[in-house]
Amino acid sequence: MIGNKCPYRLSIIIFIFFFSFLLVTLFVQTGKIEKFDLSIIHFVQGFETPLLTSIMLFFTKIGSFPIVTLLFLLISLFLYFVFHHRSELVLFAVVIAGTLVINRLLKEYFERVRPDIHRLIEIGGYSFPSGHAMTAFSVYTILAFLFWRHISTRFGRIMLLIFSALFIFMIGISRIYLGVHYPSDILGGYFVSGMWCTLAIGFFQKYKNRNHAKD
């Protein structure tokens, strides 16, 4: 994962995510990404079947607020009572809370209306950036970061990354499949959460290094 002695690498990652989000935002506001959005929506929804719809509903439910709250409580208990790492628990809580606040502020600022092409579920609120995409990226990125140091085998770490990436992708794609988000909403959500997670991890690493130096 991200090393303790790479502040410049963290800065570069933050810049890449920030610049990518600015590009998506520019394309969204100018309407230049509409053709891309519609083509991806039609492509994804072209695979619609009852079984696939059930799978997508499962993944979109995993990214919902009640399930994320339950997951947060379970992981928090695990971090506290098993690993006894209060600082990791604080990082996890700050990232999740920050993600929810940032998403709400951005949605209220951009006020993008959700797509109305072929909705399989009904939902209110604004569209950009996707709250499910942001939450999924933040939750599974931070979990991968926290559990990485506690997994000693190469195979275990590879499986951790695959599991995290799979859930991030599937939760995002489920929102497109179900017709409640544009692909650019998903990309925007990923980029914002990527920037926020990297920033939080950077401060966490700095705090850990400072405490280690004192010891």
Structural features, described:
The protein is mostly helical and about 220 residues long. Helices cover about 80% and strands about 0% of the residues. The protein is built from eight helices and no strands. The protein is globular, with a radius of gyration of 18 Å. The two termini are about 25 Å apart. The relative contact order is 0.18. The model has no long low-confidence stretch (mean pLDDT about 90).
| Total strands | 0
Summarize the helix and strand pattern as letters: HHHHHHHH
User: What gap, in angstroms, lies between the N and C termini?
Assistant: 24 Å
Strand content: under 5%
What features would you highlight for this structure?
single chain, 215 residues, mainly alpha, 8 helices, 0% strand, globular
Produce the secondary structure layout:
Blueprint lengths: L6 H24 L3 H12 L4 H13 L2 H19 L2 H25 L20 H18 L5 H24 L5 H32 L1
Helix pairs in contact: 1-8, 3-7, 4-5, 5-6, 5-8, 6-7, 6-8
